[in-house]
Automatic annotation (TrEMBL):
Originating species: [Ruminococcus] torques ATCC 27756
Extent of the signal sequence: 1-21
Pfam families in the cross-refs: Peripla_BP_6
Keywords assigned by UniProt, alphabetized: Amino-acid transport, Receptor, Signal, Transport
GO BP terms in the entry: amino acid transport
Family: Belongs to the leucine-binding protein family.
Gene3D superfamilies, alphabetized: 3.40.50.2300
Higher taxonomy: Bacteria, Bacillati, Bacillota, Clostridia, Lachnospirales
Name under which the protein is recorded: Receptor family ligand-binding protein
Coiled coil start-end: none
The UniProt record lists the keyword 4Fe-4S: no
């Protein structure tokens, strides 16, 4: 609008031309660029702050996949450009990051990395009808619109799968839960777990909450779990809090079985954490770097060579996201000159028609609600490393 006012003396035709060009730079453009010769994929996640391990892994996983695909000829013969923005796992910063990427010319979004920012950004991608595939945002609301899909399990799916696994493998009858009631991820997993546990006849003898303001001292929650005779403690939380819980339980002589979800990934890499405290901890995850299949080992080797570190599940999910986009884009016969909205419509249809085998799942399909169908894997910590315990 400012440009139009400044150009008030220019002929109407010229003004309209400028206006259309400016609109074409936005994510919600109805028209593509006739001279576009690359696909532009954006990514969003925390590369600084408390959750930086997740966003950095996602950024690196995307970059590795794009480098491989470009070297092999790209998507439908076109190369991919990639730009990643840090959101510090903050909703407002995430929306700002999205707008920055729109200004850059983003056509598809891999992100965001964490659930609450993703829930904010999906409002923007929906308004623009931009295709969005999140590698790791697990909240149901994070993909509540038809333009958004996810690679990982949702919170309810993780809660259900965890209860099923505990029941099917007779791990315990008396279960305590320690969860973060102020966190969408943690409370979402817990609610579905509790619902499923009741159906399966599992007895939740203690369900103890904490909040973001009280996540350093867990003595009260642990004592209640111990006094209730819990044989297993379910931890639908992130690894930072889990490390404190394991240490505090050890000091008080409480040694139940421990079971968690994908937020546990990163525990063994935490600075100063004694891996012995996590011995025999089990958790649900789509990926472990110790898997022996050829695809995983090649990915781990290439990732370590490129980024000097072992990939976690966030890196693997992000890597798989790009290959899924490639598969869907080829199914839809996308070209870079299509509008963002036309790309999104084509990809939405293609996503429900493809079936892929990736590191984070075999024979993965997607329904129109954006949820993936794939089998869960459970790993156990033994000898300071993750080992696949069971793959259904």
């Amino acid at each position: 609008m400012k440009m139009w006012k400044k150009a008030a003396s220019i002929a109407l035709v010229s003004a309209l031309t400028v206006s259309m060009a400016a609109c074409g730079n936005g994510g919600g453009s109805d028209k593509g660029s006739a001279d576009a010769d690359t696909f532009k994929i954006g990514g969003i996640g925390p590369t600084t702050g408390d959750a930086a391990i997740y966003g950095t892994a996602v950024q690196n996983g995307i970059q590795l996949a794009i480098d491989e695909i470009n070297e092999a000829g790209g998507i439908n013969g076109y190369q991919i450009e990639f730009k990643f923005e840090d959101d510090q796992s903050d909703s407002e910063k995430s929306v700002n990051a999205y707008n920055t990427l729109k200004d850059w010319g983003m056509q598809m979004l891999v992100g965001t990395t964490t659930s609450t920012p993703c829930t904010a950004v999906v409002e923007e991608t929906h308004a623009d009808n931009m295709f969005q595939l999140t590698p790791s945002a697990t909240a149901v609301e994070s993909i509540q619109y038809d333009n958004a899909f996810r690679m990982c399990f949702s919170d309810p799916d993780q809660g259900k799968a965890s209860a099923d696994y505990i029941s099917e493998n007779n791990l315990a009858k008396k279960i305590a839960v320690i969860y973060n009631s102020s966190d969408t991820y943690s409370s979402g997993v817990y609610q579905k777990f509790a619902e499923r546990a009741k159906t399966l006849g599992l007895d939740i003898v203690a369900a103890e909450a904490f909040t973001a303001d009280s996540k350093t001292d867990f003595s009260v929650q642990l004592q209640k779990a111990k006094d209730a005779g819990a044989e297993l403690v379910f931890l639908p939380i992130y690894y930072q809090e889990a490390s404190l819980i394991l240490a505090q339980a050890n000091k008080m002589g409480f040694a139940p079985k421990w079971f968690g979800c994908d937020g546990m990934d990163g525990l063994l890499a935490l600075d100063g954490f004694d891996a012995a405290l996590a011995e025999n901890l089990m958790f649900l995850t789509p990926f472990t770097a110790d898997a022996e299949d050829e695809a995983t080992q090649k990915f781990v080797s290439d990732f370590e060579a490129a980024f000097k570190g072992t990939p976690n599940q966030f890196a693997a999910d992000a890597y798989d996201c790009v290959y899924v986009i490639k598969e869907a884009a080829e199914k839809a016969e996308l070209t870079p000159d299509m509008s963002v909205s036309d790309m999104s419509d084509a990809l939405k249809k293609a996503m429900t028609e493809i079936k892929v085998d990736r590191m984070t799942g075999k024979s993965i399909t997607w329904s129109e609600d954006g949820e993936p169908t794939k089998d869960p894997t459970v790993v156990i910590v033994q000898g300071g490393v993750y080992k696949i315990l069971h793959a259904e």
